[in-house]
Design brief:
The chain is an alpha+beta fold. It contains 11 helices and 10 strands. The protein is globular.
């Protein structure tokens, strides 16, 4: 079956969604999308492809959504937290797992869904293309070292691709929440290779990782310090619902230690995140400032918005 025929079948399936019912269509739609992806190296289950298709089909029925990032982030609340879900192969493959999430894969899945739902023909195949685009440097998967391991890499790559923009604050009217500066010195992965199964004993990939780290040496990035995060929505109006919040850490060799999404609740900023403490995706009941005060190594947040 050719690509054109597959696309025609997918569009036809979408048109009869209302008459046949969403649940009965999910398998057919997912099957067509999987066929159209070709033979690129991917790891996923039928449950993953069906979940993507269900989320996209539900979204297609919503004409009133203006903030897709927040919409999809909230869809994952309650999903179990599991660390290192991408480290399941001997060679780097595109891993799709929406059943178990850590803080990074929560962000990546939400961003990929946001990009996909905007396309003329959203599908699992399109979702996989978008996921690969945002996960790897320049959108090209070329081994383990091509993955955007540090979030500074992730931001830089996706800004160049036109996917996101980092919000760096206003410079007028005396507004200065982004005055704190972190000077990047990334070397955690290259100095702790035993913590990464695909690095240990792999001198070639380790060299590539070190080269990637050195590209950011000395770079200064601006962030909102913890002391500002207790302020209200008017003072922090540069931070919007659904923005990605990257928590800046003082831990040597790292730039950030956790990710989540901004949610304003009763005028106070909260974090929607895949939580190792709660063991699932949650909207934290405490404010973001209260949350960060419980973690002394956390300095503040960088703010990133899907364009």
């Amino acid at each position: 079956m050719g690509t054109g025929s597959l696309e025609t079948l997918r569009i036809f399936a979408g048109r009869i969604l209302y008459s046949m019912g969403m649940r009965r269509l999910l398998f057919l739609w997912g099957f067509v999308s999987v066929l159209s992806m070709g033979l690129s190296a991917q790891t996923y289950t039928r449950a993953d492809s069906l979940k993507v298709e269900r989320l996209l089909a539900e979204a297609a029925l919503r004409g009133d959504v203006t903030n897709w990032t927040l919409y999809f982030a909230e869809k994952f609340i309650g999903t179990p937290y599991v660390a290192s879900t991408l480290e399941v192969n001997d060679e780097e493959e595109l891993v799709v797992n929406l059943r178990q999430l850590d803080c990074t894969t929560l962000v990546e899945n939400v961003v990929a869904l946001t990009l996909t739902v905007r396309e003329p023909a959203p599908s699992f195949a399109a979702f996989c293309r978008n996921l690969e685009k945002i996960r790897y440097r320049g959108g090209v998967r070329d081994g383990y070292a091509s993955r955007n391991h540090y979030f500074s890499e992730w931001i830089a790559s996706n800004e160049k691709l036109g996917v996101v923009e980092e919000i760096r604050g206003k410079k007028d009217e005396g507004y200065r929440p982004f005055v704190a500066v972190q000077r990047l010195e990334l070397d955690y992965m290259s100095t702790h290779p035993s913590a990464y199964p695909m690095l240990e004993g792999n001198a070639g990939e380790l060299r590539r990782i070190r080269t990637n780290e050195q590209a950011f040496d000395g770079q200064a990035v601006r962030y909102v310090p913890v002391s500002w995060l207790g302020k209200g929505q008017e003072e922090l109006d540069d931070i919007h619902d659904g923005d990605i919040l990257a928590i800046v850490t003082r831990k040597k060799g790292l730039d950030t230690s956790h990710l989540g999404f901004a949610v304003w609740k009763e005028g106070r900023l909260h974090l929607l995140n895949a939580s190792s403490i709660h063991k699932k995706v949650v909207l934290e009941p405490m404010t973001l400032r209260q949350y960060m005060q419980k973690h002394p190594s956390q300095l503040g947040v960088r703010v990133v918005r899907v364009i």
